[in-house]
Amino acid sequence: MKSLHVLLSITLASIVILTIAPHIGLANNTDPAIASHILLQIRIPRVLLAFIIGAGLALCGLVFQAMFHNPLATPFTLGVASGASLGAALAVFFGLSFTFIGMDSTSFLAFIGALTTISFVYCISRFGGGFSTEVLLLTGIAVSFFFSSLILLTQYLSDITGSFRILRWLMGNLSIIGYNDIWRILPVVSVVTVLVFFFRRDLNLLAAGDDIAMSRGVSVKKLRYVLFFSTSICIGAIVALCGPIGFVGMMVPHICRLLIGNDHRWLIPASCLFGGAFLILCDGIGRLVIAPAEIPVGVITTLLGGPFFLWLLIRARTHRP
Amino acid sequence: MLQTNHLNVHIAQKKCLDDINLQFNTHDYLCVIGPNGAGKSTLLKSLMGIGAASKGSITISGKPLEKISQKELARNISYVAQSHNQHLDFTVADFIKMARYPHHNIFSTWTTDDQVAFDSALFMTDTEAFTDRQIPSLSGGECQRVMIAAALCQQTPFLLLDEPTSFLDPRHQVEVHQLIQNLNQKHKISIIEVTHDINHAIQHSLHILALKEGKVFWKGRSTDFLASSTLSKIYNQEFVILKHPETGQNIALTSEQV
């Protein structure tokens, strides 16, 4: 019953945040027609997008943590973000401009970059001693470093405008106009959420260890494969749209575990709601702190995420028997 | 019936199981003994479809293992591993309930059948008292009983146990031994147990399989085991056979224990 109460509180809190957030910072001396246009075409889409993206990032982080029994395993630590960033950087560098299935050139190359990286990391770790957490994490980190230096190189070789555009993309961005992007990302995130929720029992067993999961009847390899690639596509789509917004996928599932326990039946909805609300808050902070200028949302999440990462490391050290 | 034909398993180029031919009938109780590294745990894992790829065949009621889904396998065989993760962050009740997984699909909910299986698993293992506790807070003996309870909650005709009484104090060892015997005799569950407790194997099990260096060294009825005088050859250790002063049964002690 405790879990139910916690989930209800999280739901309530996110509904409150969802309703209040679009109204914060709206100037009240403007023409009501303009104000309502800003609210409907800019503020509400932005808050909705933040919610969907936050939910998706948290969900994918949760799945990776359960799959690899490691709080540090997120799609981001496995190099997806850097792959996507490299794709976006290359699109800017070569001045590509086209639209493909609704994505502009930067998003499209970012999406391709994300998927290529995750497949690459997957293949490398399969050849290098199985699908184990350590191999996967280390491969992801190595790939991240390599891609980061390539991004730096493209930035260095670009002109000043290109260089700034790449830098701005790397900081994450939630500002959209209208609802087109929302209709594009919502199906991806919802399908993956439903899929993951179907596997809630499997995820509980997977978190208990591979041998236990298999002896209870989970086809561990097949499950890993399905979850790994579906969450990777989800993350790829998110990063392509909004840039790399780091640490949400690592922090939110963790906080939810502390609040609601380790049962994925509760953790999945809790992480989605909490992640969505959390990203709305981070974006709100970014908009208000140095208003009328904005701090990119990726900067805020990373500023919060860095200390959190350290806290996790220290906590893991002190809790180890 | 469980059957293996020419079962070979290699782990990292080392031959762990070498041409194992085993026939295991329902309602049987088989103890697998042998020195460390003889392949006992590997055998159990192979039967459960866990771990390294194997050559040869394993069949369950005549159906080859490759043609059985992991879920169907888990409706036939349950397995209690040797070392269990004490960091399992679940309550005892949640952990045991999770064992109903093979009887569910993605849409199904908790049924009365599930509840009956759960309640009887708790009853048989005498674990009702600590269902609300977290697994890491349990003692070794309590944890072992919870692991067995979870396997029982799975309601399978076959139960594989890997050294269920190692690390337990004598009283808890006796408890677990009695529980296993009870499961076999009263509840007609077929049991394969890996053990280092030779006297327990002789006394309680119906058949003994001795493995050494991945090969079958001896197999037969438990009552014939001591008479075959293979014990010292299996372990490269001298044993002394004595009569139990109360029951009159033969028991084996290492030469050092005498």
Explain this structure to me?
The complex is a heterodimer of chains A (321) and B (258). Chain A has 321 residues and is mostly helical. Helix content of chain A is 77%, strand content 1%. Chain A contains 13 helices and 2 strands; from the N terminus they run H-H-H-E-E-H-H-H-H-H-H-H-H-H-H. A two-stranded antiparallel sheet of chain A has the order 1-2. In chain A, a hairpin with a 2-residue loop joins strand 1 and strand 2 (103-104). Chain A starts with a helix and ends with a helix. In chain B, a hairpin with a 2-residue loop joins strand 4 (54-60) and strand 5 (63-64). With 258 residues, chain B is α/β, with parallel strands linked by helices. In chain B, the strands form 3 sheets. A 6-stranded mixed sheet of chain B has the order 6-7-8-3-9-10, sandwiched between helices. In chain B, strands 2-1-4-5 form a 4-stranded antiparallel sheet, with helices on one face. Chain B has a single domain (2-254), classed as P-loop containing nucleotide triphosphate hydrolases (Rossmann fold). Classes of the chains: A mainly alpha (321), B alpha/beta (258). The interface between A and B is medium-sized, with 22 and 30 residues.
